[in-house]
Please model this.
Amino acid sequence: MIIKSIVKAYYDYRHRKGYTARIGWLEPKEVDVYINTDDSEGEIPHIHIRSFRKKLRHLFKRKLNCCIMLEEARYFPHGKCRGTLNSVMRNKLNEFMHSFDKHWGLTIYEVACEEWDRNNDIDGVPVKMKEDEEGNVIIPDYTNIKPYK
Model:
């Protein structure tokens, strides 16, 4: 139990950058997936996705900067975060969210939900992860992201 707490504290320290909690990278390692801490848009649990390095921006018509809800595969445009993902990036995001984090033993989707809950506890709404009959977490299909309602 103590070792798990130490690993968790180290993971927290290592993945914090300013006011964000990094969830990970989409390949190539220049697309950053993160949670804003104490997000002003805390009423809807979501992740942020951005092109992190300037040299990648030529792959997109503009700098990649978008938000996607955690509880369903739907864009959540707000502020400067109004972009969308092309089909290649949607597939990469879906694979990423279904992959397992070796430190936590959870899917990246579950880690993102935990990070949202932990980093938006003041004003944020907790993520309501859906489960099947056997208690397994159902991860939204991020290959088909719908527009905001």
Q: What stands out?
A: Residues 2-138 form one domain. Confidence is low (pLDDT under 50) at residues 10-18.
